[in-house]
Amino acid sequence: MTLNKLFDLSGRVAIITGGAGLLGVQHAEVIAESGGHPVLIDINEKESLQKAKVISKKYNVNSMGIKTNITIKSEIKSMLETVLEKYGRIDILINNAANDPKVKDNDDNKVWTRFENFPLENWNQDIAVGLTGAFLCTQIIGSEMAKRRTGVILNISSDLGLIAPDQRIYAKDGLPDEKQPVKPVSYPVIKSALIGLTRYSATYWADKNVRVNAICPGGVQTDQPKDFLEKLSYRIPMSRMARKDEYKGAILFLISDASSYMTGAVLSVDGGRTCW
Prior knowledge:
Elements: H1 3-6, E1 13-17, H2 22-33, E2 37-42, H3 45-59, E3 64-67, H4 73-87, E4 92-95, H5 120-148, E5 151-156, H6 186-204, E6 210-217, H7 226-234, H8 248-255, E7 266-269
Parallel strand pairs: 1-2, 1-4, 2-3, 4-5, 5-6, 6-7
């Protein structure tokens, strides 16, 4: 197989959860650029439809957006039926959706993000989207792939699936410890669990020709405060955060035939952060 053919996704259909989000759109674009048909599923119907329309026009592929709550099993089943009716196949699943609880400053003299104060409601919501949603999509869509004896699943973990958050990068001068903002506990727990889901499903369906891998990306630079960027960049060997389009190559590698002998693997793409 030629090198170009290894990375060719022509005619393949890919479901992307959280497809209307920042990286969801990037994943969809790399699929479209390689000839595939990205299906953007998201709780935000307007955004998923609009972004799918833009991708279809820009790359001359048949992209679509579908409103789906991935915490509800019946909605995932309905979405899959719609995809199969339209395309007749499903080749790729990217479990990308996640709540990303932000580090926030003091609120009413109590920092809700701190471990001691973290609300059970927030924990349950984050787990429902980031982990239960990935489990349900893998269970339902992966079963369809196993039945067809072909498919690729990619779980979007994080560098925080491999290491603990360094809370020092969020620290504010002059605040006592109990009032310091921190990265909430739910995010790294979910991203670590996705690695476990990856390994379990990779071995479970290996004989059905369904490959399952995970990628652990570092943070993407958007509009973060300067002091945060400086603190984080100091802890990354490449001394910067990622650009939003810098994961495209790794994503394409992991969902294409270029990685045909990889399953259960965890690929770090983090500027070297997890080396330290």
